[in-house]
Amino acid sequence: MDPSEQNQWKRAAAEAAAKLVEDGMVIGLGTGSTASYFVAALGKRIAEDGLRIAGISTSEQTATHARSLKLPLTSFAEHAQADLTVDGTDEVELGTLYLIKGHGGALLREKIVAAASKRMVVVADETKVVEQLGSLVSVPVEVVRFGWQATGRRLTEIGANPSLRLGPDKKPYVTDGGNYIMDCAFGPIANPKEVAHHLDHVVGAVEHGLFLGFAQEVIVGGRDGVKILKKNEK
Length: 234
Prior knowledge:
This protein has 234 residues and is of the alpha/beta class. Helices cover 30% and strands 24% of the residues. The strands form three sheets. Strands 2-1-3-6-13-14 form a six-stranded mixed β-sheet, with helices on both faces. The protein starts with a helix and ends with a strand.
């Protein structure tokens, strides 16, 4: 498909999400291409409307973008929770609004912020919407560097088909937290809760990219404009 058209869909979804932000809110700022459009839209509201907010960033990349737009940043040292987190996704399952996240490499911080938020809204373009998780992408699993080979063998034992993610330099990709990522090719996942349970009990795995029960709604941009997905609505 035309990348420029897809980017227009992402921007439309992100700008719709930015309208949900109210003065005085603490906002979780997601990572990735769609989330970056949201950060840009927030920056515009701050500059043009005088919106007063504080952002908690899910990655160094997003923090740098936010600072460039004069978007004030804070942390969980100052705030117990975020009022709203807006983040992108690699896949969203219709009906459940279960997500696969982490192909941008920020899944650990993204899940920490999502879990400490009163509300999570996801922004996506229509190509990310699937009937079953795992249909398009693998499940990223962040693992500690020590003994990652042993962790990988355990992942293989539970049917994850893991592969170590490499960076552009062909060396292991390192997250902001100093860990590696193993991309696990489960294929279409019939029971995401069961898979998440198994991943939760792999020693050496820090966190995984199955975000189950986090998203309250998903704002989707597509060829027919922007629409809102709610749980158990197909």
